[in-house]
Every structure is written in C-alpha cells, then in structure tokens.
C-alpha cells in the first residue's frame, strides 16, 4: 500500500529549523508532549530529527550550559545521536516497518527532497496489525 494514505501533512506537523534554539525546542516539545521533532531547513528540506535525548546530552556535555542559557545554542550545534531516515512519498508501507522500530515517526520527502510530512509509528503498527489479524482469520 502507498504511504500517502497515512501521511500527516507538513501543515499539521510540529517541526523546527536548525536555526531555532535549544530553548525553543524544549518549550515546543513540552507544549506538544513530543519527544522528537523533525528539523526542516530554510529550503524546506528535511535535515534530521532532534530528540529530548539530544538536548539532554548537549546540556550535560557542555560546560556552563544551563536551562537559562539554552536560548544561546542553535539546534544546528546540537549533535543528533540517531539519524532518522526519511522515505520518498512513493514508498510502500513495507518499507517503513524496520524504520518504525527505531523512530517515533518516519519523515516523508518528495522527489525534490522537500519535507512533506510524517508517518507516525502508531499508524504503521496499526496497518500491520490489521493485516496480520486479517491473514490469521483467512488461515483459520
């Protein structure tokens, strides 16, 4: 099945720019209850995913960095420990299963590498669960 059916469009996705600060990321993540947010550059291209863990490790490993001065650190200066892989819009659900095991969501890009949205892990798991249950009913 084509993934477009499951796409959460960019207009409905919370995302940040690498030029945003750690403080902005922390506040946006807290406000929306997210643990990871896609990073989109000024050209609209997906450049990675920033996670709570990335922010915590930066805070821990940067001498003198406190919550009060996180507004001085740009997200482009925060190392991303895990590289979330994006897929093209013409991918199939089967292409996402392995990615979903390690990512909260799978970023989706178009043929010009422009970020167009995400597929959430929940929808991927639900899709495969329904197919599995349907197959089991057919076998029995």
TrEMBL record:
Using the record's annotation, list all stretches that form the CBS domain: 9-67
Q: What is an example of a Pfam family matching this protein?
A: CBS
Q: By what name is this protein known?
A: CBS domain-containing protein
Q: SMART domains attached here?
A: CBS (SM00116)
What InterPro entries does this protein's entry cite?
CBS_dom, CBS_dom_sf, Diverse_CBS-Domain
Ribosomal protein recorded as keyword: no
Looking up Gene3D superfamilies in the UniProt record yields:
CBS-domain
The protein's organism comes out as: bioreactor metagenome
Which keywords fit this entry according to its UniProt record?
Answer: CBS domain
């Amino acid at each position: 099945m084509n993934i477009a059916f499951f796409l959460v469009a960019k207009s409905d996705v919370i995302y940040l720019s690498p030029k945003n600060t750690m403080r902005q990321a922390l506040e946006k993540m807290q406000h929306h209850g997210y643990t990871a947010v896609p990073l989109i550059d000024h050209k609209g291209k997906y450049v990675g995913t920033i996670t709570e863990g990335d922010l915590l490790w930066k805070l821990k490993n940067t001498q003198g960095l406190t919550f009060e001065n996180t507004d001085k650190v740009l997200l482009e200066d925060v190392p991303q420990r895990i590289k979330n892989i994006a897929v093209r819009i013409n991918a199939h659900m089967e292409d996402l299963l392995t990615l979903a095991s390690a990512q909260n969501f799978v970023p989706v890009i178009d043929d010009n590498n422009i970020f167009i949205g995400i597929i959430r892990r929940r929808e991927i798991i639900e899709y495969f669960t329904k197919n599995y249950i349907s197959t089991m009913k057919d076998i029995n």
